[in-house]
Design a protein that fits this description.
By secondary structure, the chain is α+β, with helices and mostly antiparallel strands. About 25% of the residues lie in helices and about 30% in strands. The radius of gyration is 23 Å and the shape is globular. Fe (ii) ion binds near residues 220, 326 and 363.
């Protein structure tokens, strides 16, 4: 009577390591885990990797077998991270790419490439260090929401790629992986493009001209998150050249609502949560979900996450700490709205306490810059939506402009320079933060 459960438990314990290996999780860091393990499109890729050297092996023989297998594939090991033996002859199927490739979850060693097609088809990304490409990742399963992971990359390096579904193929674009600390880079920031897609088309072109390594949105990327067509008309269409080259990191805005379309469009670093962190060079980024739908007050998971992330070694060892979220604690624009009380009460003190250098917001459609207790604050809500006008004076906000704009942020090992740029491409405000 008692022995059966014991034997069953013993059997489960014996099988547990094998099951864990078969699932493909090893000692990679969180970024790598997020970058590869939790979406269906990765399954074939991971299967190919694990079938080479994991699930077939006995645990005790891992080292020997791995070496042997690596020797077998040494001539094409880098491109065979994924699907070296696949037949990638184009499949004669009718799907057409309707959303150009865009990039998510860039790390120092990998990146996700996503795109959409009008009906289901296969997924291929050819990539390489030159425009000749030469490597590939392939998933033969049919889908209209494509996502492939390129792995085994070098930090701070430019790679070229193109995507293909059925017989439809994109042109070649390039991206850069996250650099190691010490590598200068730039990123762009914008907010509240929402229904102003014609203006945002101009803003996106200006941002593209800055050749940014990544792009940051402070939310309201669409007018109505429940309307799928808004994502194409107002975000992915106007910025398609930019999104193909600069990984896009979005903080959710109130116009996105809680619509599945929003969470479906992006692959966030922190599972499916709209708050997350990542490090790029010497900059630690924290994105919060503060948009009138989400709050972060003591006791909530997001508040705990905020404190945990800003206290982390990754944050405190970085040269600069940047936080971005939608709703501002204070604003000089919009006469019936003066900011969010819970952001003033619970978010600002935590940022000040953890030496955040700068935070970016949107929600009001204007440009504002301030400085309070050593933390610079920005509202960059002028990427397309109708502009608000000045409504009140806030003591620590010293610059106000009701114009359409974006920011280009240049980072080196000692300074972060933030240029605000108008629709004519002119810099109308500059501020530099020194380490
Ligand atoms: Fe908003």
């Amino acid at each position: 009577m008692n022995s059966s459960p014991r034997w069953f438990l013993l059997l489960v314990l014996m099988l547990l390591p094998v099951l864990m290996i078969a699932c493909g999780d090893d000692d990679d860091d969180n970024d790598d885990d997020n970058a590869g393990d939790d979406d269906t499109n990765d399954d074939d890729i991971d299967d190919d990797v694990s079938s080479d050297d994991d699930s077939v092996d006995d645990d005790d023989d891992d080292t020997i077998d791995d070496d042997t297998i690596d020797d077998d594939t040494i001539d094409d090991d880098t491109d065979d991270d994924d699907t070296g033996d696949d037949d990638i002859t184009p499949i004669d199927c009718p799907a057409v790419i309707t959303r150009q490739p865009y990039l998510q979850l860039a790390t120092q060693t990998g990146i996700h490439v996503l795109w959409r097609s009008d009906q289901e088809g296969d997924s291929l990304v050819e990539w390489g260090e030159t425009e000749d490409l030469g490597e590939y990742v392939y998933d033969e399963s049919f889908t209209d929401k494509h996502e492939l992971v390129i792995e085994g990359l070098e930090p701070g390096t430019e790679y070229f790629y193109k995507a293909r579904t059925c017989l439809d193929e994109t042109t070649v674009a390039s991206f850069r992986t996250a650099p190691q600390p010490g590598t200068p880079f730039n990123f762009v920031g914008f907010g509240d493009n929402q229904d102003g897609w014609e203006t945002f088309t101009e803003i996106a072109a200006l941002m593209y001209d800055k050749h940014p390594w990544l792009a940051m949105s402070v939310g309201d990327i669409v007018d109505d998150g429940w309307h799928l067509e808004d994502f194409e008309q107002q975000l992915f269409g106007p910025g398609e050249d930019l999104w193909r080259e600069a990984p896009l990191y979005v903080s959710i805005g109130n116009h996105e609502g809680l619509a599945p379309n929003f969470f479906d469009a992006f692959h966030f670093p922190n599972d499916d949560k709209a708050y997350y962190s990542f490090t790029w060079g010497n900059v630690f980024f924290l994105c919060l979900a503060l948009d009138t739908w989400h709050i972060a007050i003591p006791g909530t998971p997001q508040y705990k996450y905020m404190v945990q992330e800003l206290s982390s070694d990754a944050a405190q060892n970085a040269d600069f700490r940047v936080v971005f979220f939608h709703t501002p604690p204070w604003t000089e624009g919009w006469d019936s709205y003066d900011g969010e009380w819970y952001v003033r009460m619970f978010t600002v003190p935590v940022m000040e306490q953890h030496n955040v250098d700068v935070y970016f917001n949107g929600h009001t459609h204007d440009y504002e810059r301030g400085l309070r207790n050593g933390v610079a604050s920005y509202i960059i809500g002028g990427a397309g939506g109708g502009l608000d006008s000045w409504a009140r004076d806030v003591e620590h906000i010293t610059v106000y402009q009701a114009i359409h704009h974006f920011v280009n942020v240049s980072v080196d090992d000692s300074t972060m320079r933030i240029d605000a740029i108008d629709l004519d491409g002119n810099i109308f405000d500059t501020y530099t933060i020194s380490k």
